[in-house]
Design goal:
- By secondary structure, the protein is of the alpha/beta class.
- The protein folds into two domains: 3-19 and 233-429, UDP-n-acetylglucosamine1-carboxyvinyl-transferase, Chain, CATH 3.65.10; 22-219, Enolpyruvate transferase domain (UDP-n-acetylglucosamine1-carboxyvinyl-transferase, Chain, Alpha-beta prism).
- Helices cover 29% and strands 27% of the residues.
- It has 13 helices and 25 strands.
- Strands 23-24-1-25 form a four-stranded mixed beta sheet, covered by helices on one side. It has a four-stranded mixed beta sheet with strand order 2-16-18-17.
- Helix 1 (22-31) runs parallel beside helix 6, helix 7 runs parallel beside helix 11 (383-394) and helix 9 runs parallel beside helix 11 (383-394).
- The radius of gyration is 22 Å and the shape is globular.
């Protein structure tokens, strides 16, 4: 069991350079399997899933050089044999995005039925199966594996998703590049990390229209070229450090190369009386003396923070705003429209003395402003829930312990070091 010990109560201040977005890095790494040209990736974080992908590529026969200090990842897949076989990493959800590249290169891929990831409720594989079948793959169950086989060249297709799933959209885009003709996806996810995957693929030679919208067209069979690509700052991490400033009454500036993604995030901070300033490539949160929920003009309605597919507030950011909710005077309803298991951890907040009410699997109300006390809490295997618990602990005088905090390392390799530099007294235990 890995725990974080946090001695809170300090107002955090300083400047932070965030890491790249895990949700952009992983699909890009998976997509590189389509190309035999040399690829250089920069600003690659040293996180658990990148380590797994590095091991998988090496097992497959790729030439890979990962300089962790320089955050560079050099890849050459031309050394993979046509007879190569390797076991997909089973401890990460991103494994499913390896399948298009493996089908294109080897004609077959195998995936265990239970693909791991954050414990956010049911995350079905059926939309991905539909994508692969539409591009000509055969999909079957063989024992504990799902087996994907490509029979001949895939043809272009058009799909209308029932739900704007990020990984389904990314799998469609990657698969379409290996098909003949122009494919189109309707109700596509358009999160910044999906846009970043498209930007990388375009730099590699892909022809994509509509990125950042709900309707994306992809021309198949591009001529891939060598590429040198630098990942953007993670907007999740930028928002998280701004929230840390707000919850502790501090003053933090975070490098932010994409402030255009923050208009709704900024408005959500304003609901708690916290203002974000963007200037010269940096975003700053100078916290108010006390967080207080701003009532709606329609005063009989509860203030809401609704999380849903982009351009809504991302579900991954909902926990950090819940942390603000238990600190701010007033009531807020948090609505997770994505995951039915994303709010069950609220009971741990009561150990800090927080007052919350779970209305149903998707909606939670916080009644903030009460005095909070140090506590020992247990995080589910959800990255930003562990961070939200750390945020609450950092805002309280005294020592708190967050058990099972290891998910933080899945996305933010330098997170604890960074918050320590801002003034939090924190250390890993185990």
């Amino acid at each position: 069991m890995t725990a974080l010990r946090v001695r809170g109560g300090q107002k955090l201040s300083g400047r932070i350079e965030p890491s790249a977005n895990k949700n952009a890095v992983l699909p890009v790494l998976c997509a590189t399997l389509l190309s035999d040209a040399p690829i250089m990736l920069r600003n690659v974080p040293e996180i658990t899933d990148v380590t797994r992908i590095h091991a998988f590529f090496s097992e497959l026969g790729s030439t890979v050089e990962w300089d962790k200090a320089a955050k560079t990842f050099a890849i050459d897949h031309s050394t993979i044999s046509s007879n190569a076989r390797a076991s997909l990493p089973q401890a990460m959800r991103a494994s499913i995005m390896m399948i298009p590249g493996l089908l294109a290169r080897l004609g077959e891929a195998r995936l265990e039925h239970e693909v791991k990831g954050c414990t956010l409720g049911a995350r079905e594989i059926d939309p991905h199966v539909e994508v692969f079948r539409n591009f000509g793959a055969e999909v079957s169950s063989e024992g504990r594996h799902i087996v994907f086989r490509q029979r001949g060249a895939g043809e272009a297709t058009r799909m209308w998703l029932e739900y704007a799933s990020v990984t389904t959209t990314e799998n469609f885009i990657i698969s379409a590049l290996n098909a003949k003709g122009t494919s189109q996806i309707v109700n596509a996810a358009c999160e910044p990390h999906v846009q970043e995957l498209c930007a990388f693929l375009e730099k590699m030679g892909a022809r994509i229209k509509g990125k950042g919208t709900s309707m994306v067209s992809i021309e198949g069979e591009p001529s891939f070229t060598s590429v040198d690509y630098t990942f953007a700052d993670d907007y999740h991490e930028v928002a998280t450090f701004l929230a840390l400033a707000a919850v502790t009454g501090g003053d933090i500036s975070v490098r932010n190369g994409c402030p255009e993604h923050f208009m709704l995030i900024d408005r959500t901070f304003e609901k708690f009386g916290a203002h974000v300033e963007h200037k010269d490539g940096w975003s700053r949160m100078e916290a108010p003396e006390r967080l207080s929920v701003k009532n709606n003009f329609t005063s009989h309605l509860t203030v809401k923070v609704e999380a849903a597919p982009w351009p809504y507030i991302p579900a991954d950011l909902l926990p950090i705003f819940i942390a603000l909710g238990v600190k701010a005077e007033g009531q807020v309803m948090f609505w997770n429209k994505v995951y039915e298991g994303g709010l069950t951890w609220h009971t741990e907040l009561s150990l800090f003395g927080a007052h919350t009410l779970l209305c149903d699997p998707h909606r939670l109300i916080t009644f903030g402003g009460d005095k909070l006390v140090p506590a020992t809490v247990t995080s589910p295997y959800i990255i930003r829930v562990a961070i939200a618990m750390l945020m609450v602990a950092a805002s309280i005088d005294g020592e708190s312990t967050i058990l099972d905090a290891d998910p933080i390392r899945r996305a933010h390799p330098d997170f604890v070091k960074n918050i320590d530099s801002l003034g939090v007294d924190v250390e890993w235990d185990g």
